[in-house]
Amino acid sequence: MLPPHEIADLGLAQAGVRRVEWAEKSMPALRGIRERFERERPLEGMRIAACMHVTAETAGLLRALRAGGAEVALAASNPLSTQDDTAAALVTEYGVSVYARSAMDPATYDRNLVTVLEQRPHLLLDDGCDLVNIVHLERPELLAEAVGGCEQTTTGVLRLRRMSAEGALRLPMVAVNDTATKRMFDNRYGTGQSTLDGIMRATNALLAGRTLVVAGFGFCGRGLAERARGMGARVVVTEVDPVKALDAVMQGYTVLPMDEAARAGDVLVTVTGNRDVIRAEHLAVLKDGAVLANAGHFDIEIDLVALEEMAVEVRRGVREHADEYVLADGRRVVLLAEGRLVNLGAAEGHPAAVMDMSFAVQALSVAWIARNHAELAPGVLEVPAEIDAEVAALELAALGVRIDTMTPEQEEYLGSWRP
User: Fold this and answer.
1) Which of 79, 145, 221, 229 is the most buried (most CB within 10 A)?
2) Which residues does the UniProt record annotate as the domain S-adenosyl-L-homocysteine hydrolase NAD binding (predicted)?
């Protein structure tokens, strides 16, 4: 008997299995954790509600959780990122309840988030804090059985920290996003590569010699800037944080306010986690043919309402995942992936090797919460340092890389203040 679900087509399951198996070839750390979970069953009897991108890489994580004994229900964290074949495989082959389909309308997206909570979960796996938000604001009775969860995005962790500061957060939530391994591997290398992948798939544009504007120089923005420069683009950075702006200057990037950067940019990418980064006054000075893309979690970084109001004509689908807005003076502005996450809306997101590390951290963090929840207070918690180190060691072993270990004398020296 299949688990409850609402997906596009169960007949796509075998294609989904092939996609999942291909991804898992590049996810050795998570495969090892799944084998361990099968033996130890650390999640026996736990119900998990997840709001995540429905991709082959996510399937690897959910398979590990299922191997650990958990019952899992999954809703999409983005209307455009769902792989319908992966969704079918999760339902028919891997025993996961899935409520997601590619390009679903906003009402269906919102309904699915509520549906996965109907199983009264013990643990919440969130991507953007949507599930946590619903539980606290609309379904507080679910807090009686919920014991904690994980958040894997910068935007979600920011929301959780605001909730905690106001005394509103009533669950212990682990900030998976804030680990050293995730910031390095996922945010920097993953977002950098996959964002450019989405832009190039949607436009087939040459980046060499073009001016690419990166709005935001956090971990994700740095990775994007590095990779764009490596492809020959002239990179301009915009920032509101003077420390990050100085970092960009010292790395050789041009730093400008958006008022000036918007005039210069051939491609403009927002990656800030904030709203209205590109506003009407910036849209008014864009070059003819300028390309807009967003690599932040929510579709609020580009003022889409202003863009619609300024356009005299909108040509949908001039290329797949690319819409052309014609302004009153004849200039054309190309918006990618409807202003949503371009790396998932127009491409396949992070490479599996990147998500291997992120999801390995998340799997071990889920087991840690399940084991220790009785001693954990509500709030935003850091991933235990030993989990981060263990995952890094697993990845190094998979790559065939060996490192040194300290001698007893070195350990004693670092542990003492005496000369």
Assistant:
1) 221
2) 187-349
